[in-house]
Amino acid sequence: MRNILTISLLTIYSLLSNAQQVTISGNDPDYAGREIVFYSIDNYFSNGKIRMGKCTVSGDGSFTASFPCQNARFVYTGLGIFHVRFFVEPGFSYEVKLPPRIDKTQEEEESPFFRETMANMVILAVKDDKGQTVPPENELNFRSMRFDSFFNPLYDQLAVDAAKDCPGTWLDSCINIFQETLPRTGNGYFDNYAFYSSGLLYFAAQREGARYVSDNYFAGKPALYDNNAYMELFNATYREYFMYFGRLDNSIYNVINRQGSFIRLKRLLAQDGVLSTDSLCELVILKNIHDEFYTERFSRGALLNMLDSAVVHSKIERHREIAAEIRSKTTKLLRGFEPPDFSLYSQDSVLVSLQNYRGKYVYLMFCTTQNYSCLTQYNILEKIYKTHHKWLDIVVVSADDKLSNMQYFKQKSGYQWDFLHFANEPDVFEKYDVRIFPTGFLIDPAGKLVLSPAPVPAPIYDPESFEDSPLEQALWQELQGKRLLQEYIRSGLINQ
């Protein structure tokens, strides 16, 4: 964990020391008072987001956000029902037009099935790193949208024709013509975007295997970690590579599950000649460690050991960063690991951290006082609190629009456990992968997850039944399983 923290600090330092500023500005009075946060993807394996910068729209509608950026990359922001995206380049300034303001309804905010409407940011004007205005036809967003308008229909048609088993000569001819007419603009990001998009045509046409694509698009070429076309083709090409290699040499299972050695796995995979460079081999390993973590084919403990080894032994800084990011994502809600910490304001307007509850079990529930499913849980939760409060803390993170609404509900209801408001860290729901209310977790006195997710307090078929409470039953099972029941009885934490 110390190594991972060091990597994270070095990453931040690197971003700040080797980057140029990107500036995004505009004016829209409809968004007055609204905070706009710009994100990008930290890596295209875990697809976790990294905050790039933020701003608050002033009363007259003007806004400006600036942030450091090393390479051209995709950025996005959530604006009500819209998911708005565009490319930025280091040192460039963008004047943009926001979409019409349409806020999410309460139902849309709470629904795990709601999907934001995808939209491209409208770019009004762009200046380069020398302050010169960039003509629209030379700008990265304009070029990529024009390219996509031609490429996407071709990709879809190839996939349809391949499914119909159309003659391969037509498919080959189509791909060849496309590759021969690829634009060469001098913009490194766009030229690579177009080139690696062409590789996706082979998958759409189902004409060539992954080995062909690997040899012609990745072997001996630099890794483009922030180019989404490169990473999309990479993920398609090396999907389930461990399984593919295992059919040729089943010793991979021993190297991963028993030895957990990142270095030995590199040596083994290098033997078949597909992964021609150290960089390519490591990147394929990192992708497959991430993907296999969500299957039952390899030991999770061994995969975590390999990530730790990659953090220490990889000579490529970006790979050490990716390994640390994957480890953080895969363990943050895993039983036996510490969940993400937070600092949120309580009903008493006191800033509270998850660390404040160390020393007792904690039932952490995400809910809102405006949701019927949550309200049906609270009466049983109060009974559980009265029975177990000597050894169990109950904490509800509330998604109420305002802190004052949560405080009013707490005062009026008389519930005795702690309510915390999400506003100080709006991404707390994403950290805990909350997709529906209520969602709960049980944390032990050492701060480690023991039930992730944990059962809800009230049974669906009888919301008032304390005896049949799934959470109540889980708590007794936890104490008995850890042989804590008699100890808690003797120490007076549980009444007989």
Kindly summarize this structure in a few lines.
With 496 residues, this protein is an alpha+beta fold.
Strand order of the largest sheet: 11-10-14-13-12-15-16
The poorly predicted ranges are none
Radius of gyration over all CA atoms, rounded: 26 Å
Helix content: 40-55%
Instruction: Give the strand tally.
Output: 16
Helix count from the secondary structure assignment: 18
Alpha-beta classification: alpha+beta
Mean pLDDT: 89
Largest sheet: 7 strands, mixed
What does it look like?
This protein is an alpha+beta fold and 496 residues long. It folds into four domains: 13-134, Immunoglobulin-like, CATH 2.60.40; 141-237, no CATH class; 241-331; 343-490, 3-Layer(aba) Sandwich (Glutaredoxin), CATH 3.40.30.10. Helices cover 43% and strands 19% of the residues. The chain has helices at residues 2-17, 106-110, 140-163, 168-180, 188-205, 210-218, 228-237, 241-248, 251-259, 262-269, 278-292, 300-313, 317-331, 372-388, 403-413, 428-431, 470-481, 485-490; strands spanning 20-27, 35-41, 49-56, 62-69, 73-79, 82-88, 93-97, 117-120, 122-127, 343-346, 351-353, 361-367, 392-398, 418-421, 439-443, 449-454. The strands form three sheets. It has a seven-stranded mixed sheet, with helices on one face. Strands 3-2-5-6-8 form a five-stranded mixed sheet, with no helix packed on it. Strands 4-1-7-9 form a four-stranded mixed sheet, with no helix packed on it. The longest helix is centred in the first third of the chain and has 24 residues, at 140-163. The radius of gyration is 26 Å and the shape is globular. It starts with a helix and ends in a 6-residue tail after the last helix.
